[in-house]
Design a protein that fits this description.
692 residues, alpha+beta, seven-stranded mixed sheet, six-stranded antiparallel sheet
């Protein structure tokens, strides 16, 4: 909720100053668990008061007790005195948080929700107290009971509301609970247990099988598989050996690992995720600004309506009817539902997203998702793996595929070129033991030349074959066919004869095809943006089912492309992972950053996908739209409630106790409606059967 910094309740927490609309909100933010317990105690006090006054009312109607209750001392009945004795501590102890909050608000020259409630409760209690001791001045009985009843409804509603909100925000606590509290650090050759909070960068930690990894680091000894499901969502444990990076809070499954810490405390991946979730849950959607402006002007208007209603009923029906109308208007008009309509929905939506590994960073992006029409994907590293893989092996001259791959791997073993790495990896995956070449020579811009198994082996492009005066007409047609598919094709020649063609390309990520199908099923236009040539770009696009391709785009030109699409009236999301994507992510209406990408990309993304799974793009979009739908329905019912109920109270048709109950129910309705988002089944979960 937007508040005036000059009039708000202020709290200094760390090096930041926070502003709150009410004292109760400040206390909940500062110490949520303690405040929830205090709220529970206040509810218990007020409910005990309700039971006590109800019991006194019942006892006062029976026999001897009724006679005693009717007994008067100095004009004050025993019953009135008993009700006063019960109600006073209930109002001033149970309601102190609201009363003190109203005082601080007025001291800051602001009128908030606490002021409305405190005015109603204290007005009822004051009139009831005057009635108890000076019945000739205030003739109407029952206002002490009304004050207690109002306070009970309000506090019970606030307690239930906060309990539901706490459950909606449980995702943060679940994330924090993942981290172990103790780490086993090697110091002078011995293992010493230290608190995780005391770890430092470059500490060496020992992790035994079955233990959680305390913090982010890199493996310096050992081999194991690590279950990263809780962070990345990857269902299959990932193999880790020397040089592999590990993430804090993941589980070491099989072997003993020694890691050197690289990030500790707030710099770890888990802490960064928690920070993003907290920021998102504290954010506001632009639509909330409208609700905040309404609330800011609403409270003074309510006091005006209450005053007019009081004057009318006082002149036409007397003080009792006027006072009832005054209390009813003040209590029914509390704009709690309007104030929490957006925050509770965002809280629930962000919590739901965190469970799936989708972080909605701000309410602003949640609102924009409602108008989303186009999703633009960067190609390299986002749609594709970002590194070449062997896709085709075509043998010639009585050679088999395994022979072509084996000779190619021997030739490339000494090269550091990305294509060489792809060929060597393919050979390892095929189970080959790759011996060293007897001689090796890299031919810049052409390929490699080596001697293997006593044979002269060449692997490279046409220019290498022409330089060595080797005819390759027999492989030319196959070469052209592979190149038309956007692949990088290389000729393998052994002892002066072309014996095979091996092709590699940057291949699509797993689930990329399914992800594109999901987005299209949602009625979204999908665009691929790349710096590659059109031939390569179109080849990838055909595999993924993408119809619109924008190729030959230099990194600094991506922003211009996004601006051009936006100038056509399109609300679009940009999905990327690299530093060169950051400006385009920031320019787009919704930047979606892949979790495996660079930190700067994630910082500029409005939605961050923790897993490297493109299907989560559809999940994030659908989640944003559902969250926005909850915001709209919350605001609708909150406005309807106030529009209908204030006139009802003003014309004297609503008892103050029922007004307090209705106000509490309106807030609970909004919170409960938002909480159902945590239980919702999303459309993207039903796509699998349709796409497959």
């Amino acid at each position: 909720m937007e508040v005036d910094a000059g009039k708000a309740i202020k709290r200094k927490i760390g090096d930041r100053t926070y502003y709150f609309c009410a004292e109760s909100c400040a206390k909940i933010y500062e110490a949520p668990e303690q405040e929830l317990k205090a709220m529970k105690r206040r509810v218990a006090v007020t409910l005990a008061g309700v039971v006590a006054v109800a019991g006194l009312r019942v006892l006062a109607t029976f026999g001897l007790v009724a006679v005693i209750m009717a007994f008067t001392i100095a004009g004050v009945s025993a019953y009135s005195l008993a009700i006063f004795i019960v109600s006073t501590p209930v109002v001033w102890l149970g309601g102190w948080s609201i009363i003190s909050g109203a005082y601080k608000s007025l001291k800051n020259r602001a009128i908030n929700m606490d002021v409305l409630i405190a005015t109603g409760v204290l007005a009822g209690w004051t009139y009831g107290a005057v009635n108890a001791f000076l019945p000739m001045v205030a003739t109407q009985e029952g206002y002490l009971e009304i004050a207690i009843g109002i306070l009970a409804f309000v506090l019970l509603g606030k307690y239930i509301e906060e309990s539901i909100r706490r459950r909606s925000a449980a995702s943060i606590r679940k994330l924090l609970d993942l981290r172990p509290t103790i780490a086993r650090v090697l110091k002078d050759g011995e293992e010493v247990e230290v608190p995780v909070d005391d770890l430092k960068v470059d500490d060496v930690i020992v992790i035994k099988p079955g233990e959680k990894i305390p913090t982010d680091g890199v493996v310096i000894a050992g081999y194991s598989s690590v279950d990263e499901k809780i962070i990345t969502g990857e269902s299959i444990p990932v193999e880790k050996n020397v040089g592999s990076e590990v993430i804090g809070a993941t589980v070491n499954k099989t072997g003993l690992l020694k890691i050197r810490t690289t990030k500790v405390g707030e710099d770890t991946a888990l802490s960064q995720i928690v920070r993003l979730v907290e920021e998102a849950q504290a954010s506001r959607a632009p639509i909330q600004k409208f609700a905040d402006r309404v609330v800011a002007r609403f409270v003074p208007i309510v006091f005006f309506v209450a005053a007019v209603s009081f004057m009318y009923w006082y002149l036409t029906s007397g003080f009792t009817a006027a006072f009832f109308a005054l209390l009813a208007v003040l209590l029914i008009a509390c704009p709690c539902a309007l104030g929490i309509a957006t925050p509770t929905a965002i809280l629930a939506g962000v919590g739901k997203g965190a469970e799936y590994g989708v972080l909605l960073r701000s309410g602003e992006y949640v609102e924009k998702a409602r108008k989303l029409k186009t999703v633009v994907f960067d190609k390299t590293g986002t749609l594709t793996k970002g590194e070449p893989s062997v896709t085709d092996i075509v043998p010639y001259d009585n050679y088999e595929e395994k022979d072509v791959l084996r000779f190619a791997a021997i030739a490339e073993k000494g090269s550091e070129h990305p294509l060489a790495e792809a060929i060597v990896n393919a050979a390892h995956q095929a189970g080959f033991n790759i011996p060293d070449a007897e001689s090796f020579e890299a031919v810049p811009g052409h390929g490699v030349r080596c001697t293997a198994e006593g044979k002269t082996v060449l692997l490279g492009n046409r220019k290498l074959m022409e330089q060595e005066k080797i005819s390759f007409e027999n492989v030319e047609s196959g070469l052209q066919k592979l190149e038309e598919q956007g692949k990088t094709a290389m000729i393998l020649a052994v002892n002066g004869k072309p014996v095979g063609v091996i092709a590699a390309m940057d291949t699509p990520k797993e689930n990329a095809v399914e992800a594109m199908g999901k987005l299209k099923a949602m009625g979204l236009e999908v665009v691929m943006l790349t710096g590659d040539n059109e031939k390569t770009a179109n080849a990838i696009a055909r595999q993924l089912g993408i119809d619109q391709v924008i190729a030959n785009v230099l990194p600094w030109e991506k922003v211009d492309v996004i601006k051009k699409l936006q100038s056509q009236g399109k609300t679009l999301a940009m999905v990327g992972d690299g530093i060169n994507d950051a400006p385009a992510l920031a320019q787009s209406d919704i930047g979606i950053a892949i979790g495996s990408g660079t930190d700067i990309a994630k910082e500029t993304g409005g939605i961050v996908l923790i897993k490297d799974d493109l299907r989560d793009v559809a999940l994030g979009v659908e989640l944003s739209k559902r969250t926005m739908s909850k915001i709209n329905s919350n605001l609708f019912w909150a406005f309807i409630y106030n529009t209908v109920m204030i006139p009802v109270a003003a014309v004297g048709l609503l008892n103050p106790i029922f007004a307090a109950g209705a106000m509490a129910v309106s807030s609970l309705t909004v919170v409960s409606n938002s909480a159902t988002l945590k239980l919702a089944k999303f459309r993207f979960e039903k796509f699998d059967a349709e796409v497959k």
